[in-house]
UniProtKB/TrEMBL annotation:
This is 16S rRNA (Cytosine967-C5)-methyltransferase. S-adenosyl-L-methionine binds at residues 233, 260, 281. Gene3D superfamilies: Vaccinia Virus protein VP39 (3.40.50.150). PANTHER family: NOP2 YEAST -RELATED NOL1/NOP2/FMU SUN DOMAIN-CONTAINING (PTHR22807), RIBOSOMAL RNA SMALL SUBUNIT METHYLTRANSFERASE B-RELATED (PTHR22807:SF53). The keyword Coiled coil does not apply. It comes from Sphingomonas japonica. InterPro entries: MeTrfase_RsmB-F_NOP2_cat (IPR049560), MeTrfase_RsmB-F_NOP2_dom (IPR001678), RCMT (IPR023267), SAM-dependent_MTases_sf (IPR029063). Keywords: Methyltransferase, RNA-binding, S-adenosyl-L-methionine, Transferase.
Length: 391
C-alpha cells in the first residue's frame, strides 16, 4: 500500500469505529481485524502502519470525532509527512480543502474530566491514563517448576514475587513457558487486587464476575489448588474461555456457573452464607484501563455510568448474602471514578451495619475505605479495591 492508501484505510476504519462507539457496535480491535480481512492485499507493515494511525487518532481525541477524516486532518496539522499523504492519488484521501473541519484534541469528554478531578485524579494522573501499557506476566506456581523463569529483558515487579514486566514486543505465545501454562499475561494491578482477597488453601471463594477467569486463576494459585472456586459471569462467551484456561494452568478447583442478569441468586442460592470470600470484579466504566482500551472514552455516557453504578451496588448486596459470618466481600473496579469505587464502598457499609472495611495490605494509596492503584503513581492499570468483613 502507498502511504496515501494507508491514510485512507485508517480514515475508513475510524469512520466505522466512531459509528460503533455511538451505536454500541463492535470494539475497535474487532473492526480493525475485519477491515484487514477485507483488505487481503495489505502486508504486515501496512497493517501495523494503519493500526498505529488509527490508535494514534483514538488516543488523541477525548470526544469521538465527527468522522475519520476530521480526526486524520487534525493529526496531519501537526505532522507534515501525514499531511503530504492527502494527495488525491488513486487510493489516497482527497487533497485537504481550505475550510475542512478538524477534530479537537483532548483527553476525555468534559463531564468525565470533571468526574476524574472530583475523584482526586488530576492533570498528571489523567495524562498517564493514555500512556502505553506495559506487558506484565504472572508466573503460575502450579505449573512453574523450581527453576527461575528466564525471559530476555524481564524486570521484577516490586512486591510481587510472581510477576515479571516484559519488553512490550515480547512474543509471549512463542515462549515454552506459555505452552506449558507456567505463565499468564496479567497486569500487575490485577495481580495486586487478586492478592487483596487473601485467598488461602481450603477456602470457598466465589468469583462473581469472573469473565474469562484472569483473577480466578490467580486465586487458585494462592489457594495452592486446594478448596473451591465458583466462577460466575453473565457472559456465556467470556465464561466459556475459563475452563480451557484452567486446564492449561493446572487449576482443578474452579467450577463455572452462568448467571442470568437480574436473577443471579437463582443459580447461587445453595451458596447463601457459605463463602469465605466473594470477589466482585464488577462491570465498570474501565477508566483505569484506557492505556489498553482508549476507545472506552468514546463509549461512556453519564447514563451508562449510572447503570453501572446501580449494577455494582446490586452485585455487592448479592455478594454480602453469599458470605459466611466473618467472611469477606472484595469490591474491585478498574475505574478511578469515586462513584464506582470509594463512594460505592461507603454506600455498601452504610447499607450493611456491622460490616467493617479492612484496608488490604497491597500496593497502592489509601483512598476512601480501600486502596487505589493508578498508572502514574503505581505503574499499573487503574484500580480501586475495598475489602469488607461481615460481622
Ligand atoms: C471487569 S470484568 C471481569 C474480569 C475478570 N474478573 C478477569 O479477571 O479477567 C466484569 C465482568 O462482569 C460481568 N458481569 C456483568 N454483569 C454481571 C452480573 N450481573 N453478574 C455477574 N457478572 C456480570 C461481565 O460480563 C464481565 O465479564
Amino acid at each position: 500500500m502507498t502511504p496515501a492508501a494507508r491514510t485512507q484505510a485508517a480514515i475508513e476504519l475510524l469512520d466505522q469505529i466512531v459509528a460503533a462507539a455511538r451505536d454500541g457496535g463492535a470494539a475497535a480491535d474487532t473492526l480493525i481485524a475485519r477491515g484487514f480481512a477485507a483488505r487481503r492485499y495489505a502486508g504486515s507493515k501496512d497493517r501495523r502502519a494503519v493500526r498505529d494511525l488509527v490508535y494514534r487518532a483514538i488516543r488523541s481525541f477525548g470526544e469521538p470525532p465527527r468522522d475519520g477524516r476530521a480526526a486524520m486532518l487534525a493529526l496531519a496539522d501537526a505532522d507534515a509527512e501525514l499531511a503530504a499523504t492527502f494527495d488525491g492519488s488513486g487510493y489516497g484521501p482527497p487533497v485537504i480543502g481550505s475550510k475542512e473541519r478538524r477534530a479537537v484534541p483532548g483527553l476525555a469528554p468534559a463531564w468525565l474530566i470533571d468526574a476524574l478531578e472530583k475523584s482526586g485524579i488530576g492533570g498528571a494522573e489523567q495524562a498517564a491514563l493514555l500512556d502505553r501499557a506495559p506487558l506484565d506476566i504472572r508466573i503460575n506456581p502450579i505449573k512453574a517448576d523450581a527453576q527461575p523463569i528466564v525471559i530476555e529483558g524481564a524486570e521484577p515487579v516490586e512486591g510481587l514475587a510472581d510477576a515479571l514486566r516484559l519488553p512490550a514486543d515480547t512474543a509471549i505465545e512463542k515462549l515454552p513457558e506459555w505452552d506449558s501454562g507456567a505463565i499468564e499475561v496479567q497486569d500487575a494491578g490485577s495481580q495486586w487486587v487478586a492478592r487483596a482477597c487473601a485467598a488461602r488453601p481450603g477456602m470457598t471463594v466465589i468469583d462473581l464476575c469472573a469473565g474469562a477467569g484472569g483473577k480466578t486463576l490467580a486465586l487458585a494459585a494462592d489457594m495452592a489448588g486446594e478448596g473451591r472456586i465458583v466462577a460466575c459471569d453473565t457472559d456465556r462467551g467470556r465464561l466459556s474461555r475459563l475452563p480451557p484456561r484452567a486446564i492449561r494452568a493446572g487449576v482443578a478447583i474452579a467450577e463455572t456457573i452462568l448467571l442470568d442478569p437480574g436473577r443471579e441468586i437463582e443459580a447461587l442460592g445453595d451458596l447463601t452464607g457459605r463463602a469465605d470470600v466473594v470477589l466482585i470484579d464488577a462491570p465498570c466504566s474501565g477508566t483505569g484501563t484506557w492505556r489498553r482500551n482508549p476507545e472506552a472514552r468514546w463509549r461512556l455516557t453519564p447514563a451508562r455510568l449510572d447503570r453501572l453504578v446501580e449494577t455494582q451496588a446490586r452485585l455487592l448486596d448479592l455478594g454480602a448474602s453469599l458470605v459466611r459470618p466473618g467472611g469477606m466481600v472484595v469490591h474491585v473496579v478498574c475505574s478511578l471514578l469515586d462513584a464506582e469505587g470509594a463512594d460505592q464502598a461507603a454506600a455498601f457499609l452504610e447499607r450493611h451495619p456491622g460490616w467493617q472495611a479492612e484496608r488490604p495490605a497491597i500496593a497502592g494509596s489509601p483512598h476512601g475505605a480501600g486502596m487505589r492503584l493508578t498508572p502514574a503513581s503505581h505503574s499499573t492499570d487503574g484500580f480501586f479495591v475495598a475489602t469488607m468483613r461481615a460481622p
